[in-house]
Amino acid sequence: MQYRALKRILAEFDPMIDVKLKNKSGVEHEIDFVIGTKERPLILIDSKYIKYTKHAREKANEILMKLTSVSETHPSVNMLIAVLAGSFTPDAIKTLRGRGIYVFHIPFGRVAMNLRRFGIVVDWPEWDKETPKRTWERLVSMTEAEKDEVGARFFDGTNIPQKLPKLIRQHLAGKTTS
Q1: How confident is the model at residue 177 (pLDDT cuts 50, 70, 90)?
Q2: What whole-number distance in Å separates Cα of residue 15 and Cα of residue 37?
Q3: Domain ranges (residues) in the chain
Q4: What is the distance between the alpha carbons of residues 112 and 125, in angstroms, rounded to a whole number?
Q5: Nearest one of 93, 89, 91 to 102, comparing CA atoms
Q6: Is pLDDT at 139 greater than 60 in this prediction?
Q7: What are 44's strand-pairing partners?
Q8: SS3 of residue 84 by DSSP
Q9: Distance between alpha carbon 165 and the CA centroid of its chain, in Å?
């Protein structure tokens, strides 16, 4: 649902979606959203959701490696953005920001609250095996219109829908600083 939410937020920039770009070693990385062209990408945006903090550092490093290695190969890239949802730790976020990546984060509790309104439960205990099954059944039974509504409300209670496009607009107009 985070992905649908971002597609909606980024629509004014007509981003390319799920773009495969190579790094200097020739390894292909799939970037969630690219503003610019495949030949001349300007802004790379990657998003991740995690439920457990135990995955925070691993996923932050995955994003870091992907975005920085692709940007090193494409000198036209001049902005990197990570949109994080879930249990990312302050250290994981600090790691990304320390490498010049703009970070937008919606904490796990807010994600759980926003999804629960649609009957999607994500805050089950790790030992619970039934709730994930019911949640999956709910997700696969949703219509596209219902999924779009969840996407439209995914970031409720945050400033991400306002701040992310504003940052990009400013950057494209040449008015952002690190």
Answers
A1: low
A2: 9
A3: 2-108+159-171
A4: 13
A5: 93
A6: yes
A7: 34, 80
A8: strand
A9: 13
